[in-house]
Amino acid sequence: MLIKINRQSCLSNYPSFPLRSYDYDKDEEQFYYPKVFKSYILTVISKSFRGRTKQLETELFKLAKQLSYDNLIFLGDTELPWLHQDNEYKPVKEAQQYLTDNKVGKRFNGALQVKNTELVTFVKHLSWLTRCNASLPYFHFTDKEQNVIGNICKYGNLHIDTLNQATDNLIKEFVDTGKFIYLEGNCFNEFGKTNVITGRRIIV
């Protein structure tokens, strides 16, 4: 079960969440990102996006457990709702149905608190939403003490920022013994001959 948190309540309690908005007077996007200690891109070796997602689900679950987090809180960086964009591509349709089954309505743009027991399933669906629905916000996560900020990109990689030395040490220890590897350089589409992502759509 997912626990819904009102957007303003979430931002009041967890001010480290990154935010993005459009300034129509200046005709440009405005960004807020917290000061971080270190930043990493973590990935896993896989022959397909589906295979990568399955490993990512498990490794993020293990990482949360290693860091003694009972849950993670996920929030979009804009005010658009989680279900802002429809998509008929099967994995995305299943992800949208998963949110609907968990009482996430069409207008809900707040945070979702995800218990560890639900994290594997949630990450699977979030990965497909992020990969294929280009008009959605970037969904970041943090823990209750705001030690980390992370998000899963459209290529299935985990972008993670540590906010203090102690957490940074723990994450590096976890990477040294787990399946995550550090990605050097920029993310790219590893599962096709071009940058075109099957099922990806945008609202114009």
In short:
With 204 residues, the protein is an alpha+beta fold. It is 33% helix and 23% strand.
N to C succession of SSEs: EHEEEHEHEHEEEHE
Distance between the termini: 33 Å
Question: How helix-rich are the residues, as a percent range?
Answer: 25-40%
Oligomerization category of the chains in this entry? single chain
**Total helical segments:** 5
What number is the mean pLDDT? 96
Q: What share of residues are in beta strands?
A: 15-25%
What radius of gyration results from the CA coordinates? 16 Å
Task: Trace the largest sheet across and list its strands.
Answer: 1-6-5-7-8-9-4-10
**Annotation, overall tally of beta strands:** 10
Low-confidence stretches: none
Q: Which structural class do the helices and strands define?
A: alpha+beta
The biggest sheet amounts to: 8 strands, antiparallel
| Tertiary shape | globular
Commentary on this structure:
This protein is α+β, with helices and mostly antiparallel strands. It has five helices and ten strands, in the order βαβββαβαβαβββαβ.
